[in-house]
Structure prediction request, 627 residues.
Amino acid sequence: MDSNTDPLVIGQTTLSSRLFVGTGKYSSDSLISEVLKRSGAQVITVALRRMDFHSQVGNVTDYIPSGVQLLPNTSGARNAEEAVRIARLAKAAGCGNWIKIEVISDNKYLLPDGYETVKATEILAREGFVALPYISPDLMVAKRLVEAGAAAVMPLGAPIGTNRGLKTRELLRILIDEIPLPVIVDAGIGRPSHACEAMEMGAAACLLNTAIASAADPGLMAEAFGKAVSAGRQAYWAGLGGRQEYAQASSPLTGFLHE
Amino acid sequence: MSFYEQYLKYRDYDSAGCNPGSKTIERILGQDRLLPTDFLALLSPAAQPYLEAMAQKARRLTVQHFGKTILLYTPLYLSDYCSNQCQYCGFNVRNPLKRKQLSLEEVEEAARRIAATGLKHILILTGDARAISSPDYIADCAGVLRKYFTSIAIEVYAMTQEEYGQLVNAGVDGFTIYQETYNEEYYDLIHVSGPKKDYRFRLDAPERACRAGMRSVNIGALLGLDDWRRDGFFTGLHAHYLQNQYPAVEISLSLPRIRPHAGEFQPRCPVTDKQMVQFLLALRLFLPRAGITISTRENARFRDNLLSLGVTKMSAGSHTAVGAQIDKEENAGQFEISDPRNVAEMSAALRQMGYQPLYQDWQPIGDR
Prediction:
């Protein structure tokens, strides 16, 4: 099993890397090209709110090589209407038709608004966007998103930027089991081992930003995440051994019953 | 519902006398979430030996939530006409200034010059003279500025919710107001006359701005007027209240220290650098997601050192006199600034310290 035989297909696009990265927190945008190169990531999310298309001092997109899929996000949107407007602005600005739908009206914990997210997804999918909604891992919201035409669902592992790992593990597992779309674990992944675990569980991909951007050596951490995601995916296909409650003794105590 | 109810609840707390033991401070430093009383403890003298530990945690939280980025903005003074007698302010109606208000043409010229630096965030300020710098005038100025900037914030006199709504419709998305001091009795004393004398109307202004649809709301106390621990505590408590009541609004705080100005007033409670740092760190630990602004009231060296302690926004290329951006200032301004670096110099300094200067962090999505 390798990336040639196990591609990730989102919309009409086939990806060989299952790691998505963000752009938001780097000390310099120039680090982004190194992160992409060393991680092997082929999808990168950018906040439209930070893109100045008339800037004389450059933009984050200057550091994203062609061939890398741009995933503009609707960061800043507090309801469906604002998310739709941002998505249309991004498309009009030449960012393509992929959109990560973030609808957050809670600035304290940055938890997504499922109801407004479904509404935005319905509108944008109908308009031809490849809609990737960011959600809390709620099965019923995810089912509504499938009906609404989402191309994938992006449940959080823990609140954005917390690096706490897969705190929503049991709910993620339900989504992976029940939703017939790629499940991309987004937010909360703080360590390569967290990403690896998500992939072992059967997640289609992982998206992360803070864990790389806040590392002492972002390039090296990006490389580590690239490997962790690949390793987790391999383990998923290899089939993890079952867990036993007790050790299996080589000299069983109840063997005499079978004599 | 108003923050005033919380103010009354805590008003008689002896914040200056609050001095928990070292064990309490250590326990608080190990917590993920802090209660108002924990915040008060971090402002206390007992927390002073723990400044480095607080700084390490504050830095980690800030990088985690905001990354190594600093949003840059610049102030634009539209008018220095004022009808208040605030003892600490250079715009005091009794101060013999030659007053000025920018025409819309002058606003446009200033906007052009500021926009040429690359900045996309601007903060517009006026004195408190609503007969001259009326909500209509401010809305007209916003109409000019929105051609050049993606974010327009106001720092003007307290208005009604309807007036804030009018400004939101005109393209204003950010709001700043300083309560100056939360000490109601002292507030009354230093605001000798004028509409600003109404403590409650000013105290509730951020809440009216939140209700009117402002995207970001910034509050603060003018450090030096009253005991910094007391005003610092109420500032944090106020921000905490607004965060809980209006979760869709980005709440941030400024930490202005009183500066020399045209007048004789001397702060009765000067705040040292060390105390300022303690306040900033306690705020960051209490409100990990709140923006924190340090303006050019502080000098370059101090600002550079505060950078890694929790700051998320800084002003650059600042002038506090009306007309300064178009070479038409006619007085010394509201107060003296301490960090004269222009936008390019500020950006270079940030990059050198391992931070990315952000010129834009908002894209208007309304019908502008």
